[in-house]
């Protein structure tokens, strides 16, 4: 039985910013355990581990598996990859719902693109927009355009903790609240996020709070948990969050960390299992110009670089 680790580097369609870091390529690892795949791709700016650290731990884990040992990786991205590659996946999962579209870019360019899109003819039920990146007036003008031109579409906003409590409050006071599905992480501290929700009436979702494993509690304006398995790590930790969400009547949105098409496929399967009724946050693949798998799901070994191949005695 074979164990293998591959590395990929896929160009972004245009450079993307991740918490102040400009990336031109998405780099990550693919692990294969007895023919089953997992993806290990720490996201700069969001993951606490580097790709080099993830690679070193992955190689050590594969060596342990080849000796017939069981492994318990520590780094979240490695936990996710090894868990996926060793999981007993349900065989009859339905396809996940199509992801809601993710808008990213300068407000003026997005307003222009909106005029050219066919969304007015067939509006998406939800649409996500990054905020707290450009001047507030420009972002509010874009939201007003979206709300007016797509009245049947609910908007998901994501501030990535980029505002102070006061800034978030000023922004949220001017939102067309009836059209806002929820706002992800307006402030870094959970207490500030809840204070903004209470002062303005905006509905909230948690994302980074979950991957940083910070304390949080339920609140009437907390609507959803955005679960990013690559950042949270083990599938059992993700499942515990899904259970907590179900018990508290919160929606679950399975979201990507800009993985390759292989990782997005795995996340789609988890989304159909854990959140069958909520469109997932997996509309990130179109930012990549290349794939690691064929349309039928085979890994294209010419698009990845083999780091290690081992035989397992088990
Ligand atoms: O959640 C989604 O709809 C797509 C993924 C996404 O928005 C993100 C992925 C990774 C980092 C950020 O850029 C962003 C987020 O914070 O949610
Ligand atoms: Mg987010």
TrEMBL record:
| Functional note | Converts 2-succinyl-6-hydroxy-2,4-cyclohexadiene-1-carboxylate (SHCHC) to 2-succinylbenzoate (OSB).
Which source organism?
Halomonas alkaliantarctica
Cofactor(s) recorded for this entry are: a divalent metal cation
Report the InterPro entries cross-referenced here: Enolase-like_C_sf, Enolase-like_N, Enolase_C-like, Mandel_Rmase/mucon_lact_enz_CS, Mandelate_racemase_C, OSB_synthase_MenC1, OSBS_N
Q: Enumerate the residues binding Mg(2+).
A: 158, 184, 207
Per the database record, which ranges form the Mandelate racemase/muconate lactonizing enzyme C-terminal domain?
107-203
Name the enzyme group at the top EC level: lyase
On whether Magnesium is a keyword of this UniProt record, the answer is yes
Pathways involved: Quinol/quinone metabolism; 1,4-dihydroxy-2-naphthoate biosynthesis; 1,4-dihydroxy-2-naphthoate from chorismate: step 4/7; Quinol/quinone metabolism; menaquinone biosynthesis
Q: Which UniProt keywords apply?
A: Lyase, Magnesium, Menaquinone biosynthesis, Metal-binding
Q: Which HAMAP family match?
A: MenC_1 (MF_00470)
Q: Which reaction does it catalyse?
A: (1R,6R)-6-hydroxy-2-succinyl-cyclohexa-2,4-diene-1-carboxylate = 2-succinylbenzoate + H2O
A family per Pfam = MenC_N
Q: Which residues form a coiled coil?
A: none
The record's comment on protein family reads: Belongs to the mandelate racemase/muconate lactonizing enzyme family. MenC type 1 subfamily.
State the name under which the record lists this protein. o-succinylbenzoate synthase
What gene is it encoded by? Answer: menC
């Amino acid at each position: 039985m074979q164990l293998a680790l591959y590395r990929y580097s896929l160009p972004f369609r245009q450079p993307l910013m991740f918490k102040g870091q400009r990336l031109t390529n998405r780099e990550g690892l693919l692990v294969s355990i007895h023919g089953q795949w997992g993806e290990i791709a720490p996201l700069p700016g969001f993951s606490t581990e580097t790709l080099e650290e993830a690679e070193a731990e992955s190689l050590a884990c594969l060596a342990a598996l080849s000796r017939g040992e069981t492994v318990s990786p520590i780094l979240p991205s490695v936990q996710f990859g090894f868990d996926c590659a060793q999981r007993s996946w349900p065989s009859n999962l339905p396809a996940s719902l199509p992801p809601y579209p993710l808008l990213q870019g300068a407000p003026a360019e997005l307003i222009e693109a909106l005029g050219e899109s066919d969304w007015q003819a067939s509006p998406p039920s939800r649409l996500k927009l990054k905020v707290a990146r450009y001047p507030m007036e420009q972002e509010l003008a874009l939201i007003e355009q979206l709300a007016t031109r797509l009245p049947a579409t609910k908007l998901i906003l994501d501030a990535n903790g980029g505002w102070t409590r006061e800034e978030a409050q000023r922004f949220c006071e001017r939102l067309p609240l009836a059209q806002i599905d929820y706002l992800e992480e307006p402030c870094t501290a959970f207490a500030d996020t809840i204070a903004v929700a209470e002062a303005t009436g905006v509905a909230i979702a948690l994302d980074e709070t979950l991957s940083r494993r910070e304390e949080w509690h339920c609140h009437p304006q907390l609507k959803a948990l955005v679960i990013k398995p690559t950042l949270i790590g083990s599938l059992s930790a993700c499942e515990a969050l899904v259970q907590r969400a179900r018990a508290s009547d919160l929606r679950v949105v399975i979201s990507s960390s800009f993985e390759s098409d292989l990782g997005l496929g795995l996340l789609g399967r988890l989304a159909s299992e854990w959140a069958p009724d909520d469109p997932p946050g997996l509309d990130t693949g179109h930012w990549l110009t290349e794939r690691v798998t064929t349309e039928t799901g085979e890994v294209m070994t010419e698009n990845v670089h083999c780091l290690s191949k081992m035989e397992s005695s088990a």
